[in-house]
Design goal:
The complex is a heterodimer of chains A (about 110) and B (about 110). Chain A is built from no helices and eleven strands. By secondary structure, chain A is mostly beta strands. In chain A, the strands form two sheets. In chain A, strands 2, 4, 5, 6, 9, 10 and 11 form a seven-stranded mixed β-sheet that branches. In chain A, strand 5 and strand 6 form a beta hairpin. Chain B starts with a strand and ends with a strand. The radius of gyration of chain B is 14 Å and the shape is globular. In chain B, strands 2, 5, 6, 10, 11 and 12 form a six-stranded mixed β-sheet that branches. Chain B has a four-stranded antiparallel β-sheet with strand order 3-9-8-7, with no helix packed on it. Chain B is mainly beta. Chain B has one domain: Immunoglobulins (Immunoglobulin-like). Classes of the chains: A mainly beta (about 110), B mainly beta (about 110).
Chain lengths: ~110, ~110
Amino acid sequence: KAGVTQTPRYLIKTRGQQVTLSCSPISGHRSVSWYQQTPGQGLQFLFEYFSETQRNKGNFPGRFSGRQFSNSRSEMNVSTLELGDSALYLCASSSQAGDEQFFGPGTRLTVL
Amino acid sequence: AQSVSQHNHHVILSEAASLELGCNYSYGGTVNLFWYVQYPGQHLQLLLKYFSGDPLVKGIKGFEAEFIKSKFSFNLRKPSVQWSDTAEYFCAVNPYTGRRALTFGSGTRLQVQP
């Protein structure tokens, strides 16, 4: 069974731009969660989607948004990029509430 | 809000030494507990998980963890580490609320010297 895939793997953007990251969950998984990983803040929860609905949101500004499609694929968008948005963005999928999450390789975003 | 504390930020061991990494969480209700590992250049992988039942859980690669409810702890152990265990280890908590948001600890970087 294929794992969680994320595209692109690397991105370089400049301040003020916006970016869209994509995630394809494991086949059959309907839940997708997003996390931000930085050396200073560690792994922080961004948001969770299940059946195209946002079920939970972490403490991030409104510049961070996401959506989920009917095939469970998910995208996250960051608008008006700031230097501090440079991070590894991880997507994880799971099948049941509270069950283990399977992580993708991440998208490394660098904001210049 | 719940939080997870990992007390050891950087641990250096020689091969064959025993390992114990501490993890404490703050949440009064029922929780699901996880240990994830991130090998250099690889993505996060699940080592083991605890949902209920026997508080001593065994995971992959010889790792085990013990859930002590009274201490809000979920420490990771391995009797004899190998060089290939060099990685970053994360403890994570998911309160049993039906939501899938994991709260992670800050991670412990383990370096095993041959």
